Amino acid sequence: MTIDLANETDVAVDLDEIHDCARYAMDAMFVHPNVELSIRIIDEAAMETLHVQWMDLEGPTDVMSFPMDELTPGREGALSDEGMLGDIVLCPTVAAAQASAAGHDTMEELLLLTVHGVLHLLGHDHAEAEERLEMFELQRTILLTYLASRGRSVEAGTIRIAPPSGRE
Fold it and tell me: Does 124 show up as a binding residue in the annotation?
């Protein structure tokens, strides 16, 4: 897998951890090893511009996903197709505010948003209640198992499974 990362802000972000989490999420979803992903860390002004342009919603948001080849998850024994998965855009200052409100650290929020972005790129959505439950339970499972694989103990109740109201 090729994961291209760039932090276009002055906020210190552990790009190695975001890379590892994205790879873990793609492995969990049986994504082909010849898939490409781009992750950009941007400031609130740039995120607001994207949010207005693509969602027609004012204000910055935490994460946006832009699928390219409309890949879908694979399954055990049958990986996804090869191709360009797409782009994930994260805003660390919005993530920091959400992390504070949720009672966990900013990096955990950025990891949650990374998993969320990967799932969106693979066709998951949360517009309908049933989709929402499926996507957010999957998101939670991937994030908690990723953190456990890194030797990080996170109380399951501190990782939210739904975006703050009014988001997305």
Answer: no
